[in-house]
Design a protein that fits this description.
Layout lengths: L2 H15 L5 H28 L4 E2 L8 H17 L2 H7 L8 E2 L1 H25 L8 H14 L1
Parallel strand pairs: 1-2
């Protein structure tokens, strides 16, 4: 990841939840958001198939109220940080049986941004005074989101 991108992500986490991340944390973040995006896409594929479609539409993705709110908050914060172009490159498009509609692909950066916002807030819910997440904090967040998404 380019130095400018690292600085933007560090600023994102500071603004979103008062967290200080290092480069290893940014790798964990990338793994986190791409894994959760994949989980959402798998469920979206099942919904599209159940509805007899051969494309995964945005409405097929199981975006919860909380994730939708995090996506809106990310969008507001992103006006200042301009992370969306970086997230477009970060988003993996895992091959599934069905293809993605163009508007579904276009939402990937926003979904990833919302997942990042939810992740940052989760750290603070689990440990309000946390400033520098350690491996065990990351694992708890991974476990929590595995349970929910």
């Amino acid at each position: 990841m380019a130095v400018l991108a690292v600085a933007r992500f560090e600023r994102f986490f500071r603004l979103a939840a008062g967290l200080d991340l290092d480069k290893q944390d940014l790798r964990r973040h990338e793994e986190f958001v791409n894994t959760r995006l994949y989980h959402l896409l798998v469920r979206g594929e099942a919904t599209a198939k159940a509805n007899g479609r051969d494309l995964i539409l945005p409405c097929d993705l199981p975006i919860t109220k909380g994730l939708q709110e995090c996506m809106h908050e990310f969008r507001r914060l992103d006006q200042e940080l301009e992370l969306q172009p970086i997230l477009e490159q970060l988003a993996r498009h895992p091959p599934l049986d069905l293809d993605y509609a163009d508007d579904t692909k276009a939402r990937f950066p926003l979904i990833i941004g919302g997942l990042g916002m939810a992740l940052a807030r989760s750290f603070k819910i689990m440990e309000p005074g946390l400033k520098n997440p350690r491996a065990e904090h990351w694992q708890r967040c991974f476990d929590l989101f595995d349970l929910l998404l």
